[in-house]
Amino acid sequence: MKGLLHVFNGGRLEISDKYSFDVPQIQSEMDWKILVDDFLSNSEKFANQVEQLPDNLLDEPFVDEKYGSYLRNIEGVIEHSYYHLGQVSLIKKMISK
Fold it and tell me: What secondary structure does DSSP assign to 15-65, as a single string?
C-alpha cells in the first residue's frame, strides 16, 4: 500500500516484486508494533485516498498501461490483503492448538 500511496501522491512507481522480502527483521515486540502500526496507518491512508479519487481516474492507466488501470491496482491490493489476512488466520489457528 505504501508504494501505491506514493503514486497517488504524485510520486514514481518504485515498488517491485524483487523488494517483497526487504522488510526489517522483527527482533522485539516493539519492532512488531511498529510494523503493525505502519501497516494500519497506510491502510487508513489508502482507503481515504481511494475515497477521494475522481471516478473518471479509475479507468485510467496506472502509471503505465502495462500495469492496468487504477481500479485494477486498487482491487489487486485489496485482494492481496485478504490473502494475507487468511494466512494470518491460519497461522493463528495453528499456534493456538
Answer: --GGGTT------SHHHHHHHHHHHHHHHHHHHHHHHHS-GGGTTSBSSSG
Domain that holds residue 81: 2-10+34-96
Domain assignment present for 29: no
Q: In this predicted structure, what is the pLDDT of residue 48?
A: 96
* CA nearest to 50, candidates 82, 17, 72: 72
14, 66, 88 from 6: Cα distances, Å: 8, 18, 26
pLDDT tens-digit map of 60-72: 999 999 999 999 9
